[in-house]
Amino acid sequence: MKVGVPTEIKVDEYRVALTPAGVRELADAGHTVLIQQGAGEGSAIADAAYQEQGATIVAGAADVWAEADLVVKVKEPQPPEVAMLRPGQLLFTYLHLAADPELTRGLMASGATCIAYETVEDARGRLPLLAPMSEVAGKIAAQAGAFILEKPLGGRGILLGGVPGVPAAKVLVIGGGVVGMNAAFIAIGMEASVTVFDRNLERLRELDVVFGGRADTCFASTLAIEEALPAADLIIGAVLVHGAKAPRVITREQLGLMKPSTVLVDVSVDQGGCFETTHPTTHTNPTYDVEGITHYCVANMPGAVPITSTYALTNATLPYVLELAEHGVAGSAPGGLNVHNGEVTYRAVAEAAGVPYVPAEASPRRSSSGSIGAALPRQAR
Question: Structure pTM?
Fold first, then answer.
């Protein structure tokens, strides 16, 4: 199979979907790898490093999209990329379609088969391709929040960890999953006063043990969150519902409960955001003010540290790329298939876009090449 890797064109995105190690694995398995010229530069990977492992460097994105049977990316395709998709082509990347009905309809119209990193599940129902970027995003959320708390950047002018004689900042982390846990770890390490909210009591028990008593845990009732808002200096939204739009946990009205220049960091922004006042921003212009509250809502936080992020992501995705290259759509993982032959095959995406949901196995236009997940790599089971 021909596997293509275009340069990411989303604003302030520097990651790349394949490293030279991945090229080597694919080439050794007999596949052709096409890398757009300069695709790895943002992650400090030179074209020559790809060529040395068997890749062919092509001049432009159009060449990659025209020739590749399988296109592997990092971020959701932008409008010019959607226009280059063709029927039967495989696309493997982060999609976050529940927050973008227009993109969903564009992918349906393309006739391509689109598999989303963020909905691929392992045998235990976990999200192995979302986890590494969630780890990075959680850590960045705390770092960025600490930075934005500085007065010249729109914050209250408070040091996250305080100093002797001056209390530390109060940090609320809403959501105790991978993002929330990593955000809390960094905030704890910076000596902030941290409380993590979640609705899963078993998860809160796990976090209590993991944090060793260095952070408080609290059941995430609406009232409990609301009562905590007046004292907060930094609030990190880290709520995830598999493949669906993020639920709203802080409303516009509740901003009035907060101190002026409190900082909100919404890591759920790529799934629509968990704050009512969230809208996507970029690393170039990361913040905005709503009613005196500073919002940091960058939709590709891990893109700021592409060397770390690229290798963390591709370590996780490579076994799946190999299976897709070998078996086509039959090698896709459970839950990963979002759009196939013009139909939406993931329920939460269909509901968000207002289009019919067609289970992949029931689709009359389903490829006969095998059932989804039939040929999962051993590492992914």
Answer: 0.90
